[in-house]
Amino acid sequence: MKVKICGIKDVETALTAVESGADALGFVFAESKRKITSEQAREIIKELPDELLKVGVFVNEDPDHIRKIVDEAGINVIQLHGDETPEYCAQFSVPVIKALSIESQDDFNQMGKYSCDYYLLDSPKGKYRGGNGVTFDWNVLNGEKLDGKKIILAGGLSIDNVEEAIEIAAPYMVDVSSGVETVGKKDVNKIKKFIDQAKKRSMLEIS
């Protein structure tokens, strides 16, 4: 199971996540308590492995501004977490994750309108688009024919529920932010435990 740790703001946390087995790190450039500048992101990203997915998170942003941050910071994947149209999502030269807030089956069906590299399924919108620590009904994915789509499961995941979420939804990747925080800050011990829990099933299947 692949794991994305979102809301990275410092080098130490980023390196700990990578050493613990993270496959992707998320850097938030939208309004959020985890917002980061392109300069801050660049200083972190230059310390990271080339093959790691460095995901820039944007909400209804001007496309030229996104391209500027991609170039400045070294982002190699774009996550669009707003009301972006399929046409908007198709204009970028780097891989795109389209985030969808899931409240019902109808929201899930919106995925069919897009042609993106990944689809992040998140809980309903709160104060911010994502990172609100609330789950949605994972059974929406259970038994769905995904036609090879790479699903990233997000929304309220934690050390306590990630195994169950993986068993029910069978995603390509899981994404966590608030679930590995203590008093609003990333907790490296929780990051390590979350990655261990998420990858435990994969290791059992291999053995």
Question: What's a quick, concise take on this entry?
Answer:
With 207 residues, this protein is of the alpha/beta class. It has helices at 11-19, 38-45, 63-73, 86-89, 105-109, 162-169, 188-206; strands spanning 2-6, 24-28, 53-58, 77-80, 96-101, 118-122, 151-153, 173-176, 181-182, 185-186.
Structure in words:
The structure is a single chain. This protein is α/β, with parallel strands linked by helices and about 210 residues long. The protein has a single domain (about 1-205), classed as TIM Barrel (Alpha-Beta Barrel). The protein contains seven helices and ten strands. It has helices at about 10-20, 40-45, 65-75, 85-90, 105-110, 160-170, 190-205; strands at about 1-5, 25-30, 55-60, 75-80, 95-100, 120, 150-155, 175, 180, 185. Strands 1-2-3-4-5-6-7-8 form an eight-stranded parallel beta barrel, surrounded by four helices. Helix 3 (about 65-75) links the parallel strand 3 and strand 4 (about 75-80). Helix 2 (about 40-45) runs parallel beside helix 3. The two termini are about 15 Å apart. The model has no long low-confidence stretch (mean pLDDT about 90).
Descriptive key words:
207 residues; alpha/beta; TIM Barrel; two-stranded antiparallel sheet; 7 helices; 10 strands
Number of helices: 7
Largest sheet descriptor: 8 strands, parallel, barrel
Radius of gyration: 16 Å
Strand content: 15-25%
CATH superfamily: Aldolase class I
- Which structural class do the helices and strands define? alpha/beta
**Mean pLDDT across every amino acid position:** 90
- What is the CATH architecture assignment? Alpha-Beta Barrel
